[in-house]
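Subject: sequence -> structure tokens, single chain

Hey, anyone have a minute? Need the predicted structure for the following. Not urgent.
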Amino acid sequence: MKDPKHWMAKYPDYVQNEVEIPPISVPEMLQKTVDIFGEHEAVSFYGNTFTYNEIARLVVGFASSLQQAGVQKGDRVAIMLPNCPQYVVSYYGALTAGAIVTQLNPMLVERELEYVLNDCEAETIVLLNALYPRIKAIQIKTSIKNIITVSLQSTVKSQQEDDTFDSFLAKQNGLVLPIECEPEHDIAVLQYTGGTTGRAKGAMLTHRNIVANAVQTYKFFKDEIVKGHEKCLTVLPLFHVFGMSACMNLSIYCGNSMIMLPRFDLEEVLETIKREQPTLFPGVPTMYMAITSHPRAEEYGIDSIRICNSGSAPMPVELLREFESKTGAQILEGYGLSEASPSTHCNPAFAERKAGTVGIGLPGTEYKIVDVATGTLEVPTGRLGELIIRGPQVMKGYWNMIEETAVTLRDGWLFTGDIARMDKEGYVSIVDRKKDLIIASGYNVYPREIEEVLYEHPSVQEAVVIGIADDFRGETVKAFIVQRPGNTADPEEIISFCRQHLAAFKIPRIVEFREELPKTNVGKILRRILRDESAKKQ
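Reply:
Had a minute. Here:
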């Protein structure tokens, strides 16, 4: 561009100016779309399609059943499902009934589930029928009263004592007690995210936060997205805040169709692209890498895809170029976090895309880089500091965590904990993490949580976990262990032990035994030295 400020003048509402957010709840957002696009396809799932009118009727029915089961305003309803039409119905149905949705990763094991369910005090859970034994094993230790199971094959008969999704829905009376909602204050979703302590925190996302992020994202892509006409390949998990926003809520705000798949299976994804011809594909780099590496990817009509919104992990520049050359699509890398519903930044389609950056702020998003030490001084352009954000998508706070909220939210600003720099045009580059977060295949992994499990193994005297670079997963979990005297556990034994207590994406792939670990003079283990040593070996 000849004039680096040209895009700022042409699109002033994309920088820091306010964007108008309608004062509506999330269910009202759905209803507005139903009023306009009622007969349009909302969901396609293995050949089964649902219009917006059909989804709306199911949502009302589910809300009615929840209220008859005793669910009241502010109660927490947990959802533990892969992508499927029942996810959308459960999510919007719970919100219509006045409840707060707690989204759970189906990969969580019993100890992880027990903590989150007790923290949010959920009394109702909707989950995949295959996960039923897991929840029954811990039910007595939680507040769960209502268990609603979902089968992805409608012909499968449940032998369980609790409700199936269909039987629960059949209990509706067609009436939903009206719920008064204050979008700016009432919580819609508890999105659990970890921390350096390993203690999961529930980010309280209000109705306004979620509606705002859908509106912000649409306005950012308004020249690329045609309401009521797009097909979104929805393979990002909806329980993840990125999938919830970029796939489900954005599609519903725009009246577009979600082409749903419950997991990323390369052949299935390619066959779905060939059959359904999606136009939008929000994803993570590992997904784009898998498609790019397929020797016959072009034979599946992948050129139907126009826009790919990449997030959750850094996008290698070479991968970006190769994927685009095969598909003709444009990959626009962005940035977000659970505490911001999640999207805050993205490379623009309407201006220069800068590979290696996460772009500029979404409409109505203010951001700056401040000194790491105090967080009070804005650093000069190009200098490193902590990225902080302010906007309508920023959470209300952490559920029942006053101190943690005070650390993260200060004077209206969200302190991300990410070290970044900003250029003179407002493009942000994420350089490092202030926290020790590991991102493996797009999932957040928190070292302390894994270390606590390792310390439970009888052979482990000391343990520390880091993330090391991985061409496919982004990062891989590596554990360093000092064994107790006289013990001779091998790496496979340690990994097998972790497999019993952790979700699959958290399990260390590499275990290295050492005589001692590097420490400060006060005994704190120096992760940085271990990271540097591992990087040199790669």
